[in-house]
Design goal:
About 75% of the residues lie in helices and about 0% in strands. It is mainly alpha-helical and about 150 residues long. The protein has 2 domains: about 1-60, no CATH class; about 65-145, no CATH class. The radius of gyration is 21 Å and the shape is flat. GO terms for molecular function: transmembrane transporter activity. Keywords: Cell membrane, Membrane, Transmembrane, Transmembrane helix. Its main location: membrane. This is ABC transporter permease.
Amino acid sequence: MYYFSNRSKIGFEIAVLGESENTARYIGINVTKTIMIAALVSGGLCGIVGMMQTTGVSGALSTEITGGLGFTAIIVAWLSGLKVPFVVVNSFAFAVLLQGASYIQTAFQIPGSVAEMIQAIILFFILGSEFVLQYRFVSDKTKSEVA
């Protein structure tokens, strides 16, 4: 997947299309074809992973099969800056965070909601620090206007 998205022609076309549809058209990329390829590849991968999850891990199909992992995946991808090596590291860190929450829930006899609150606080500070590192607050007012 890393090679497909970062080293292949179609991966480049998908990246350009994701940034600007007008630019993709201008440089001669077939937008409809590229969208269809991206949808087929991502849908196919999701189908394969869903099949593996259902048949291997769970053994049965239920409504709670993923347990909110989609939202976790979005946070991991965002924190990783969509870079595959960082996705692996951040996925491991999230797995440790999830298992740690289960452990403290059992070890300290606290409700599951408290463990989830601890996770949320940790994530809040990670995302907040990421925001502070990426953006700078600028004021239009001069010192004389403030006083």
